[in-house]
Write a structure and sequence with these properties.
Elements: E1 4-11, H1 17-29, E2 32-36, H2 50-63, E3 67-72, H3 80-91, E4 95-100, H4 111-116, E5 119-121, H5 125-133
Parallel strand pairs: 1-2, 1-3, 3-4, 4-5
Length: 157
């Protein structure tokens, strides 16, 4: 497969910063050159005002992207910022792809991801690439098995 370039914003909690490199490597090995516009420890944000962070830092970066990828781990569901990023991307009609974190067994999804996701995939390069590049509504459990569109996992991670 020839490489495809996509502007991608990876929505995540800061506790998962160290795992973003792993996701970008997986995308690269699968033929996606992801131009990452995310805020993380490599590109820190030192602002204190929530309104400024959302409207002056996050919003412009999400507007520049074609896809919002949500890295899902057990604490992602509790992030006000992750939910806001998803809702904002939906308002802009961006493709929203949830990716279960590497080794994740399943957990509650952020409320906005339950509502607005276009795809939800396990930690498999081909599934992630398909979810980013296609218009398909792929829905997978963390292990890659099919999942109903609106099911909610209710077991601990």
């Amino acid at each position: 497969m020839a490489n495809e370039t996509r502007n991608v914003f990876i929505s995540h909690i800061h506790e998962d910063d160290s795992k973003l490199g792993e996701l970008k490597r997986l995308l690269s090995q699968s033929g996606i050159d992801a131009k990452d516009y995310s805020i993380n420890s490599d590109k820190p944000n030192r602002a204190k005002s929530e309104d400024y962070i959302k409207n002056q830092i996050l919003a412009p970066k999400i507007r520049q992207c074609s896809v919002l990828v949500v890295y899902i781990s057990k604490d992602t569901k509790d992030s006000e910022y992750v939910n806001w990023e998803i809702e904002y991307a939906d308002k802009l009609d961006k493709r929203i792809v949830g990716v279960w974190g590497n080794g994740e067994k399943g957990c509650d999804l952020p409320e906005a991801l339950e509502e607005y996701r276009d795809a939800l995939v396990g930690w498999h390069g081909s599934s992630i690439v398909d979810a980013i590049l296609s218009d398909d509504h792929i829905q997978e459990n963390p292990d890659g098995t099919p999942r109903p569109r609106r099911s909610i996992l209710r077991h601990p991670c």
